[in-house]
Specification:
It is a single chain. The radius of gyration is 21 Å and the shape is globular. By secondary structure, it is α/β, with parallel strands linked by helices. The strands form 4 sheets. Strands 7, 10, 11, 12, 13, 14, 15, 16, 17 and 20 form a 10-stranded mixed beta sheet that branches. Strands 3-2-1-4-5-6 form a 6-stranded parallel beta sheet, sandwiched between helices. It has 2 domains: 122 residues, NAD(P)-binding Rossmann-like Domain (Rossmann fold, 3-Layer(aba) Sandwich), CATH 3.40.50.720; 227 residues, Dihydrodipicolinate Reductase, domain 2 (2-Layer Sandwich).
């Protein structure tokens, strides 16, 4: 749980009020993959004088020149913490299954934590990490970068004003292409677990997790108490354990339906989007572009918004008590979705008759025939593939797995 600004100012928390003028001492755990993005962002913030990257940790050494010469390099977080005192912020950008132990280790220090999405790989681990954050008084920012978009405030005002009428539902649509090389890039890619340790690397929990998280935030579903139920309809075209083509249907505590129709087996990648379905119009938010298109009987408008960087937001929270954009407690709703996927039966294998392969070798990628139409129907009708009678889907009676939104265990 993120420390409220009022409590933080009274807690003797290093780096809060009284340390505003000094650059924050930051350590980055994981310098490859999305960690490389953090390296670039930290260099931008270093040039602005607000951070000092004092150490990095990764079992695979960083690329030459990618890390400042003054930063110490360690093979792991244990070694980093032993050799680097007085950290202000620890950023963890590592494989999903390592988030829980590394997050707990970070919270045992005096540093605040930036933890990449998904927070952890099970609801039980989420509860443990949340309790540790609350007990330590540390602040935890979860890396759902799309939540920093200024379009979210505009959408809230749009709904409140009645511009699109009564909000009847929200949907998220993701159509991406991922080839065989994508699933060969690491031992955890596409896995549900490794040697008994949860991974849950599926379409809705990792590559298109932002679509789910953004839809939940727009719906006002932040904590576990904000979700009434989650249903999953999971499939795979690739030779993997996890799902690559799925519908996730959530009902919020207020009764609002959220339908997420996602695939990594499209014919071509398009920018994912979240749609607000109103009684008098629609609002479509392309969250990777911060672009909002509103359509009503009066016409169509489009606007591109700015975005707050989550690392800068965490630093501002430390300095001046600014509200965190993505505190750990606000990932509770997302974690109920992840938990429903984790505990669901194995994703059904799509019959090869409905799959077309494009490209050669490791560049080959699966295309589920007709997937674009199936995704459109699913979001328009708030229905699963099974309910729609898609030919490769299993029967609706056996496909859906529902879980209560108030669960606290695994």
């Amino acid at each position: 749980m993120a420390t409220p600004p009022s409590a933080a100012s009274q807690s003797g928390h290093p780096g809060h009020a009284g340390h505003a003028a000094s650059a924050a001492r930051v350590a980055l755990v994981g310098v490859h993959g999305f960690g490389a993005h953090h390296l670039g962002n930290l260099e931008r913030l270093r040039a602005a004088g607000v951070v000092e990257l004092v150490a990095v940790a990764d079992p695979q050494p960083p690329e030459p020149g990618s890390v400042p010469a003054a930063a110490a390099v360690f093979p792991g977080l244990t070694e980093l913490l032993a050799g680097t005192p007085d950290l202000d912020v620890i950023i963890v950008a590592t494989p999903i299954q390592t988030h829980a132990p590394l997050g707990l280790a970070a919270l045992a220090t005096t540093a605040d934590l930036y933890l990449e999405k998904p927070p952890v790989a099970s609801l039980a681990d989420f509860n443990i990490l949340s309790d540790a954050a609350q007990a330590s008084g540390r602040s935890v920012q979860i890396g759902f970068q799309s939540l920093g978009s200024h379009a979210l405030a505009a959408l809230e005002e749009l709904v409140a004003s009645g511009t699109i009428g009564t909000l009847e539902g929200i949907s998220a649509t993701g159509r991406w292409v991922r080839d065989k090389a994508y699933y060969k890039r690491s031992r955890w890619a596409g896995k549900r677990s490794i040697e008994g340790i949860d991974v849950v690397d599926g379409v809705a929990t990792n590559p298109l997790a932002h679509a789910v998280a953004t839809a939940l935030r727009i719906a006002g579903a932040r904590t576990t108490a904000d979700v009434a139920s989650v249903e999953t309809d999971l499939y795979r075209a690739n030779d993997i354990e996890s799902d690559d083509t799925s519908v996730i249907r959530v009902r919020t505590a207020t009764g609002l339906p959220i339908t997420c129709a996602l695939t990594l087996c499209a014919s071509e990648s398009v920018e994912p989007y979240v749609t607000l379905h109103g009684s008098a119009g629609t609002a479509v938010f392309h969250y990777t572009e911060d672009r909002l298109t509103v359509t009503t009987p009066a016409g169509q408008t489009e606007q591109v918004f700015g975005r707050d960087d989550l690392t800068e937001n965490l630093l501002a929270h430390r300095r001046e008590g600014r509200e965190l954009i993505s505190p750990i407690t606000d990932s509770g709703a997302f974690m109920l979705v992840l938990e429903a996927i984790r505990t669901a039966p194995l994703p059904a294998l799509i019959d090869g008759a409905y799959i077309r392969w494009e490209g050669d070798g490791d560049a080959a990628h699966a295309v589920v025939i007709g997937i674009e139409s199936a995704l459109e129907r699913a979001t328009r009708e708030s229905a699963t593939f099974s309910e729609l009678g898609v030919p490769w889907a299993v029967s609706a009676a056996s496909a859906l797995r529902a879980s209560a939104g108030q669960g606290t265990g695994s």
